[in-house]
Amino acid sequence: MSRAKFLIDECLSVDxxxxxxKWGYQASHVRDLGLLRREDSQLxxxxxxxxxxxxxxxxxxxxxxxxxxxxxxxxxxxxxxxxLICLHGPDHGFxxxxxxxxxxVALDLVEQQGGDATNLRIEVTWSEAGITYDxxxxxxxx
Length: 142
Fold this sequence. Notes:
Layout: E1 5-8, H1 16-22, E2 26-29, H2 40-49, E3 53-56, H3 59-63, E4 84-88, H4 96-112, E5 120-127, E6 130-137
Parallel strand pairs: 1-2, 1-3, 3-4, 4-5
Antiparallel strand pairs: 5-6
């Protein structure tokens, strides 16, 4: 079992890595690695090569459509990965504070897995009504 380390996508706050550090995890923002404005297809080899659990708002770009996760997106056909965390919120007004709240829930869910997010897809949705989440094996068992 390996302890997750998190790479935060540019669509999320640069304040997420320090939160992960407080939980005892290694974390970086794409900005800190010189990876801003990279296409998803350019991030994928870095994510997989360096065993990052990727944290993004762009769920469909990485896990595929809501109705068929794994059938498309950057993780389609990837049999082994360090995890994928998708944070969801309103299109407008999903601000730093909500990113931090949603990511804290995701970190707690990783903790419940012994700190290892290997082959997990964690989806956390922030809304004014509260936070919901789902933890799924990804790719799905066949």
